[in-house]
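Can't paste images in this forum, so I'm doing it all in text. The chain is below; anyone willing to post the predicted structure tokens underneath?
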Amino acid sequence: MFTDSVWKWLQLSAKDSNTSVGEFIERWARSQIEDTTPIFPVSVFHPGDETC
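Text version of the structure:
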């Protein structure tokens, strides 16, 4: 959930970026992840599998 002011900022920022709010948020989130290691080990979602 976002405050009204944050939602409006997201909408305006997404419009300036010619994208949707969802895509804008996803791009920002991906830019914050510096390493490619999964946040959760693969085995959390697929028991028995190992992460690389």
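The helical segments are 4-16, 21-32, 42-45. The longest helix spans residues 4-16.
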